[in-house]
Amino acid sequence: MKAIWRKSWFLWLVYTLAAILVSLQRLGLAPNADGYTAYENYRIFRNAFFHLMAGQNPYASFPAEQWDLFKYSPAFALLMAPFAALPDWVGLPLWNLLNALLLLAAVFHMPVLTEKQRIFMAWWILPELVVSMQNSQSNGLTAALMLWVFIALENSKPTAAAGWTIAGAFLKIFGIFSALLAWFYPKKIRFTFALLIWGLALILLPILFTGPDQLWQVYRWWWELLINDHASSVGLSVQGWLQTWFGWVPSKIGVTLTGLLLLLVSVFTARRNSQNALLTLASLLIWVVIFNHKAESPTFVIAMCGVAIWYLTSARKPWETALLVVTFILVSLSPTDIFPRAWREQIVQPFVLKAVPCIAVWVLLTLRLWRSRDVEIVERLRG
């Protein structure tokens, strides 16, 4: 008899309860001294719809309403309409359920992986998903959309894959790099055409409510925000690692472009098959986090999806298992009370230890993709 924790229905139950309980816990907390709630990110998303509809700059500061800036696309603000119509005690649980269940559905539909591997992956990413939901973030949704791109391509559905890609890009800009997965599959022209159509549709969707002049102004405001946002701070990223470990402060754009170049080389030199497409997906899931100079703890549910795929497709040698354990300790456990507060404040946080094992795994994935071409060349010579 299969243990209950290995049953898919039990994971559906756990993910559902996790989303609801986290939401209720955040809703139950009193506002802080400044009047801000414990689920401000959700309120920022929700308020963006009202600001867009009122002809205001949704990317401006609204300190009387929310603690931070809205940084997503105008289409995202518009598509928050169903949540904007609901009171927070209904909308927040539904928002977290959307993030949790769409991600779990994607994991359970993952091709190439076995049922046992999907179960492992679902449990593996749950702690970081909870962290994301505690912050009412969109990272579960972001990870899910990237997984669905791969699923659609594996099922020979390039139009759907293009739709998932554009949806991810309009949620978080780095999501557009999911398009790289199409390199490993046929029907690239259809995928590219669908990508353009989906992209144009989401770019112009808000025009139905704002008019062309106002929408153009909204995109200008968004661009200004992105430019200014890039110039500030570093987070749990390669950029942060280089600064805290080596005292090196390279250009943020330079670090990102270097990471992008390494990613592109690994993709375009790899053998075109499902296995390498899956490895590329894992690489992308980690890349969008560690090369985001403002990466925060809640974003690591995305990276942990990539770590799971890396391990499940590895030879699982002792050192690989050891790295997996270290990753779990530093990523999922280090921010908790399991680590003494002094350790967290003096070691874990200052030295961005949450990012370090993910950086190591990404390097290993990049090397595996590079070596796949060497294997192909050897096989051809032997043939």
Structural account:
This protein is mostly helical and 383 residues long. It has 2 domains: 1-113 and 137-231, no CATH class; 233-383, no CATH class. The protein has 18 helices and no strands. Helix 5 runs antiparallel to helix 6 (115-134), helix 8 (158-171) crosses helix 9 (188-204) and helix 13 runs antiparallel to helix 14 (274-290). The model is unreliable at 375-383 (pLDDT under 50).
Number of helices: 18
Structural domain tally: 2
If you average the pLDDT, what whole number results?
92
Multimerization state: single chain
In terms of DSSP E residues, the strand content is under 5%
Order of H and E elements: HHHHHHHHHHHHHHHHHH
Low-confidence stretches: 375-383
Task: Please state the overall shape, judged from the principal axes of the Cα atoms.
Answer: globular
| Annotation, overall tally of beta strands | 0
Radius of gyration: 21 Å
Instruction: Estimate the helix proportion, in percent.
Output: 55-70%
Major beta sheet summary: none
